[in-house]
Write a structure and sequence with these properties.
Number of domains: 4
Distance between the termini: 96 Å
Shape: elongated
Helix content: 40-55%
Number of helices: 10
Largest sheet: 5 strands, antiparallel
Radius of gyration: 44 Å
């Protein structure tokens, strides 16, 4: 650039000298020479300004994050060298920003795929970053819930904070928070443990109830053995009595063990392979398998050509259990009805309706819990596992099970399953 300017100023000097020489040393000539020099200098300044302005605009675009437009490089002077350097920097920044953008997108995809809520919270309060799992925790203003704030402040002060069971709304979360001193922020990771804790409590309750149910027959067996060893074995009548008790308690333990194994096996299943089940045939098999008590009338009302998606073996077990329960809880004279019908175009409903003792409203939601036996049925044989097993079987088939009842007027247990198009050879 300096060589270019020297040449320009040399040209101006020669032109000025020539004008003065031709017109003599007169004021007009001097003024003309000065004007010509100013004009040439102005044109040179304009040319330089345009090139610098283009470079300035290009630099502004790069500062805004736009690296796609190449710079126009002109000349071999210093401005041209600067333009080439800026264009080289633009290409390098474009490549580096492309790599950074790809890495950022990968990280965002990873964070959004996490089930744990991840957020970076500024020391002053606003959330700088949050993944999709954290969205349900933030309020309408994008701020973390009130319950988290003390732990975030503690992490900012001492570097780390944690809580194993933080209550937020109707859910329970475990939270860890770590300070990011260089960022003047706190990284928080929050995991929803509600369902996990429910399972833990349910499993603990299940084990406790199973142990309780096994304790009674074990105590009976142990007591009978002690009595027999104490001399009762020599008394034929006493011996037969206690042997009968041993057989009853052993059978009770065997039935409980089979029920627990069935429940464990059903719990381990995922979604079952669905088949087309011919409901009238399945109900006919169920009715033949369960004998009605004396003075309890059984009616069957099933629509023809009724087909469902499900597992025929599981469906039979469910319906046998519901029908058996209905007979147990219907004192004579009474009636039990098995009904099958369409409910809209997408579902079928199977119902077992009895005229028995009914279920109190407060207990209706609990009858499907494991080991739950309502007060009326505690004097009957059973462990409170039948309906829990039935519910799990229906869930495996992709259906629903429920009950409605009026105390003293009977109960209705129902099963909903998806409708299936009948096949040429339906599975019974």
């Amino acid at each position: 650039m300096r060589l270019w300017l020297v040449c320009a100023f040399a040209a101006v000097a020669l032109i000025t000298a020539g004008v003065v020489y031709l017109f003599g040393d007169r004021p007009r000539a001097v003024l003309g020479a000065i004007g010509l020099g100013v004009l040439v200098g102005f044109l040179i300044a304009v040319a330089i300004s345009r090139r610098v302005t283009r470079l300035s605009r290009a630099a502004g675009k790069m500062a805004a994050g736009s690296f796609d437009t190449p710079l126009v490089v002109e000349g071999r002077d210093e401005i041209g060298d600067l333009a080439r350097a800026l264009d080289s920097m633009r290409a390098s920044l474009k490549e580096n920003f492309g790599v950074l953008t790809a890495d950022r997108n990968k990280l965002e995809a990873i964070f959004d795929g996490l089930t744990d809520a991840v957020m970076v919270v500024d020391d002053e309060g606003p959330v700088r970053f949050s993944n999709s799992a954290a969205a349900k925790l933030l309020d309408s203003a994008g701020l973390p819930p009130e319950a988290m704030l003390p732990h975030l402040r503690r992490a900012a002060e001492v570097g780390f904070a944690a809580h194993p069971a933080l209550r937020i709304g109707d859910r329970t979360y475990t939270m860890t928070a770590r300070s990011l001193p260089d960022e003047r922020a706190v990284l928080a990771v929050v995991r929803d443990r509600t369902d996990e804790m429910r399972r833990e409590f349910a499993e603990a309750d299940f084990v406790s109830n199973a142990a309780h149910e096994l304790r009674n027959p074990l105590a009976g067996i142990s007591g009978a053995i002690e009595v027999l060893q104490g001399g009762a074995k020599d008394d034929p009548q006493a011996r037969d009595h206690f042997l009968e008790r041993l057989a009853e308690d052993a059978e009770r333990m065997s039935r409980l063990t089979r029920a627990l194994l069935t429940l464990a096996r059903i719990d381990s299943l995922g979604a079952a392979e669905t088949e087309v089940v011919d409901v009238p045939i399945a109900i006919r098999d169920v009715v033949e398998a369960v004998e009605a008590p004396l003075h309890v009338e059984l009616s069957v009302e099933v629509e023809p050509d009724l087909t469902a998606k499900g597992d025929p073996t599981l469906l039979r077990q469910v319906m046998v259990g519901l029908l058996t329960n209905a007979f147990k809880n219907t004192p004579p004279p009474g009636a039990v009805t098995v009904r099958g019908r369409h409910d809209g175009e997408a579902e079928i409903v199977l119902e077992v309706i009895d005229t028995g003792t009914g279920i109190p409203a407060a207990e209706l939601e609990r009858v499907f819990e494991r080991f739950y036996r309502r007060a009326e049925s505690r004097k009957q044989e059973g462990f409170g596992l039948g309906l829990a097993i039935a519910r799990r079987m229906v869930n495996v088939m992709g259906g629903e099970i429920g009950a409605s009842s009026v105390e003293g007027s009977g109960s209705t247990f129902w099963v909903r399953l998806p409708v299936a198009q009948p096949s040429p050879t339906p599975v019974a």
